[in-house]
Write a structure and sequence with these properties.
The complex is a heterodimer of chains A (291) and B (609). Chain A is α/β, with parallel strands linked by helices and 291 residues long. In chain A, strands 5-4-3-6-7-10 form a six-stranded mixed sheet, sandwiched between helices. A two-stranded antiparallel sheet of chain A has the order 1-2. In chain A, strand 6, helix 6 and strand 7 form a beta-alpha-beta unit. About 4% of the residues of chain A have low confidence. With 609 residues, chain B is of the alpha/beta class. In chain B, 19% of the residues lie in helices and 32% in strands. In chain B, the strands form nine sheets. Chain B has an eight-stranded mixed sheet with strand order 17-16-18-19-25-24-23-21. Chain B is elongated, with a radius of gyration of 34 Å. The chains are: A alpha/beta (291), B alpha/beta (609). At the A-B interface, strand 8, strand 9 and helix 8 of A face strand 2 of B.
Chain lengths: 291, 609
């Protein structure tokens, strides 16, 4: 199995047991999952390792008897879950703290891997980079996902999140899940998120922020220049100003989180440097991102 | 309001200009890349300026710094408000340190209130006003000469102290007039309770004198008499207690004899009526002490001291060609056993035991005597601490040193046809002095004591003065006062009197306050002055002990009711009333305000940084 950047073999092993759990029905119908729908095609497509929640009707007892492996059968004509992975690769993702980009890329790899393991159709976009991967299916596509992630160079160029999201949204067809991984540090980031919702996407919003962004240690008289937008702001850092920043950041985080969750999506805030293992344990499983 | 240093305002222009210039400088901001510039609030408060130029913006710090600069310049300009006329260009304060000033009818005491008024005047005087301070205690002391130095005056003021003694304010007032003479805008301010004898002969020389009595007047109990005597019916202690209470008071009187409780009496004091009793003394006592257990305004006079009755007669040999005044005056004293002779017998001359306590030479050449005490009226013999040197006439003005010999006597306006000029050797004391030399001198050559009045009684009008019998009585007391059982020398003085101890060259002095000090004398006679506290003073040198009691029995000092004495030719109240000034220089208040502004400015700066 191909190794994804930022993930250990053990973490991949753990993730291979899970599937993405969309909150809304209608974003895709899973043939492998227990469903209200009774009409199913039975054209065999592939085997997949059994995961909790899989319909026992598709469990392959012969493979279990002969090889001792627990697998389920999947069928070609089942409606696939379309998963769109959008990774922000603008300059802000590496500014000040390289761990922020590494964490974002590892999350992208982890959730993309789970999607592939669940037999979902995955397409991936990197904002700020032209590289796009479409129609990845099945765990055999893990190598292509890993290659795509490896090919994205460390972000260094300014790029607007809004423009990047607009470009992705224009390419989306039909309902599905969009996993957007970004720091979201743009004034109109909320409208970017809403654009996905308007396209019948269940938005999974992953906001990655560095320690310095959460609690900045700036002092003195400063001319602040935004690395992505080029905006400038003149200020003298005082306790009051620092407190104002924290307050604005908190409001911004809540706004973006609400934009995702109010439309039936999910949202999480990740501090740069967090491990995939901790995310599985503390967020994804308890909040039913995967299961 | 005026400014003592108006040129200081010129400093305001460059100071404000400098501050404004710094605020015109534009802040140079450091460029920092950030991922979320839009989240940072705008803040253009300039706390540092280091590059040209910007439009001046409103800033609380700028306003505070301009205000601070203004206050600093205002302080340097020394603004002054119009003062009351109390502090003039040259003001001489006379502070009464007498016993009555210890009264507590004003808190903490009249004396402290006087010092507070003085300190207030020092603190609020104008920069150029000069002040002198004179303390009228057991001696008159110039605490500070005329000076405008406030710190020096404040230091001098801290050395002021009250006494338990009666004080003669006339000397201090004359001294104040002398200091103020020829000084521009001179003025004398007397800080006193008015409990002092009239100073009718005070001649201020045209210098205005201000006086307002300190104290409200309060009830006070005190001794009028406390003395032991011996009569045919035995020894007895005469006690008289009086008070200035407006209603009947009852309190205890504790009496101790030789340090042991003797009895406790109940004093019932009716307004305007002294309480008097005679207490029989059934055993021989040396020292007696009475204490009034009463809550009143003055504690000093609640203690009275006395010696036990002296049963000895004073044996006096009068060596005289014949002086009826002297002979009769001495014979009138019941303590005296008098013999008269025209010349000194050989048995009383030179050295050896004597049959007499005192030998008095009157108009006869003095010779060395065996008696312990000798008095000479006229030209004394040479040697023995007092040397005659020619003849002179006495000037009418004289000064008197307080002591047992001079108590109750007055020597001014004494007419003396001619007198011998005396030169005193070290150790000798001039109790009364005139410009032409001592009028009453004492010396203590060896164990004996010698008193000289350097003029013949017949060449003066002293025998016709009231002072004469008092002086003789004092001399008899002087010759009989020492000596007691157990070898301890005892005496009773009034606070402020000098304690003279012939034959003592050193010793340890124990005061009533519990302090002790080593005292020495190179002349063979210890003279201890400034003993101004009521109680027993003890002197010890090896096995030798002497004790003297200071007792304030003085009804005028104890009468604390408001009184308006005469200063010069007019009642004191008719001169300028004294009111403490309220304002003088303002720079201290401005300094306080500037400090507060500075603290606030620093707080604002710290918060913005």
């Amino acid at each position: 199995m191909a190794v994804l950047p930022g993930l250990s073999a053990q973490e991949q092993q753990v993730l291979s047991r899970y599937r993405l759990l969309p909150r809304r029905r209608g974003v895709g119908t899973h043939g492998e999952r227990l469903s209200q729908s009774q009409g199913m095609s039975h054209e065999f497509r592939d085997f997949r390792e059994y995961a909790d929640g899989d319909d026992l009707r598709h469990f392959d007892w012969n493979v279990l008897a002969r090889l001792g492996q627990r697998v389920v059968r999947t069928y070609q004509d089942e409606q696939e879950l379309k998963v769109t992975l959008v990774l922000d690769a603008s300059a802000s993702m590496t500014s000040h703290d390289p761990a922020k980009w590494e964490t974002a890329r590892a999350i992208a790899g982890a959730l993309g891997f789970v999607a592939l393991q669940g037999g979902d159709a995955l397409q991936s976009f990197a904002i700020g980079r032209g590289g796009t991967v479409r129609s990845l299916r099945g765990y055999t596509a893990t190598g292509r996902l890993a290659h795509w992630l490896d090919e994205i160079p460390e972000p260094s160029e300014a790029h607007s999140l809004r423009k990047g999201c607009e470009a992705v949204v224009n390419q989306l067809k039909g309902p599905g899940i969009t996993i957007l991984i970004s720091d979201g540090l743009e004034p109109d980031a909320e409208s970017s998120l809403r654009a996905f919702v308007r396209r019948q996407q269940e938005l999974w919003w992953v906001q990655v922020l560095s320690e310095d962004e959460l609690d900045p240690g700036l002092t003195g008289d400063l001319e602040l220049v935004d690395v992505d937008l080029g905006h400038m702001r003149t200020t003298t850092i005082t306790d009051e100003v620092r407190e104002g920043y924290r307050s604005n950041l908190s409001a911004h985080i809540n706004t973006l989180s609400a934009a995702a969750t109010r439309s039936g999506g999910k949202a999480m805030l990740v501090k740069a440097g967090a491990t995939i293992e901790s995310l599985i344990r503390d967020v994804w499983r308890p909040q039913r991102w995967i299961g | 309001m005026t400014f003592a240093n108006p040129l200081a305002w010129l400093g305001l222009i460059p100071l404000w200009g400098g501050i404004l210039f710094l605020y015109f400088l534009r802040i140079r901001h450091q460029t920092v890349k950030t991922t979320a510039a839009f989240l940072w609030p705008e803040n253009r408060d300039s706390v540092r300026a280091d590059a040209p130029f910007q439009r001046l913006q409103w800033s609380l710090l700028l306003a505070l710094q301009l205000l601070l600069a203004f206050l600093a310049i205002l302080m340097l300009a020394r603004p002054q408000v119009a003062q009351s006329a109390v502090i003039t260009e040259s003001t001489i304060f006379v502070v009464d340190g007498s016993a009555s000033m210890n009264a507590t009818d004003v808190k903490p005491s009249r004396f402290d209130a006087a010092v507070n008024q003085l300190n207030q005047s020092i603190a609020t005087k104008s920069r150029t006003s000069r002040i002198a301070i004179i303390e009228s205690g057991t001696t008159t002391r110039i605490v500070s000469g005329l000076t405008a130095d406030e710190s020096a005056l404040a230091r001098a003021s801290r050395t002021l102290k009250s006494t338990d003694a009666e004080v003669d304010l006339s000397e201090a007032m004359q001294l104040a007039a002398a200091i103020g003479k020829n000084q521009p805008g001179a003025k004398i301010i007397l800080l006193s309770d008015g409990v002092f004898s009239d100073i009718a002969d005070f001649k201020p020389g045209g210098i205005p004198t201000a006086f307002t009595p300190i104290g409200r007047g309060a009830g006070n109990a005190f001794f009028r008499a406390f003395a032991a005597g011996s009569s045919a019916r035995g020894d007895a202690l005469l006690i008289s207690v009086d008070g200035t209470f407006s209603e009947k008071r009852e309190f205890a009187l504790n009496i101790e004899a030789d340090g042991e409780p003797l009895t406790k009496l109940n004093v019932v004091l009716n307004p305007g009526k002294p309480w008097t009793t005679t207490l029989p003394l059934r055993r021989e006592v040396s020292r007696l002490e009475g204490k009034l257990d009463v809550d009143d305004a003055l504690k000093t006079d609640n203690v009275a001291l006395a010696l036990g009755p002296d049963r000895r007669a004073v044996r006096i040999l009068l060596v005289s060609a014949g002086n009826v005044f002297l002979e009769r005056a001495l014979a009138l004293d019941p303590r005296v056993k008098l013999d008269r002779t025209a010349s000194l017998p050989e048995s009383e001359s030179g050295e050896g035991p004597s049959n007499y306590d005192l030998v008095v030479f009157d108009g006869v050449a003095e010779r060395p005597v065996r008696a312990k005490f000798a008095v000479t009226f006229g030209k004394p013999m040479a040697g023995g601490g007092i040397e005659p040197s020619g003849t002179t006439k006495n000037s009418p003005w004289s000064s008197t040193k307080k002591g047992p010999l001079t108590e109750g006597t007055g020597w001014n306006d004494l007419y003396i046809e001619s007198m011998t000029r005396l030169n005193l050797q070290p150790g000798a004391v001039a109790w009364v002095s005139s410009a032409d030399g001592p009028l009453l001198a004492e010396a203590a050559p060896g164990p004996s004591r010698r008193l000289v009045v350097p003029f013949s009684l017949l060449d003066s009008d002293l025998p016709l003065q009231p002072t004469f019998p008092i002086l003789l009585s004092n001399i008899v007391s002087w010759a009989s006062a020492t000596g007691s059982k157990s070898g301890e020398e005892l005496g009773i003085l009034k606070p402020g009197m000098s304690w003279v101890m012939p034959g003592w060259s050193r010793g340890t002095l124990f005061t009533p306050d519990g302090d002790q000090a080593q005292v020495t004398s190179e002349t063979g006679t210890l003279r201890l002055s400034n003993l101004d506290r009521v109680g027993w003073y003890r002197l010890r040198d090896g096995n030798r002990n002497a004790r003297v009691g200071m007792s304030l029995i003085n009804s005028s000092e104890s009468n604390l009711l408001p009184r308006v004495p005469v200063l010069g030719q007019a009642p004191a109240s008719s001169v300028v009333a004294f009111n403490a000034p309220q304002w003088g220089d303002l720079w201290r208040w401005i300094a306080l305000l500037a400090l507060a502004v500075f603290c606030f400015e620093w707080w604002v700066y710290a918060r913005k940084s």
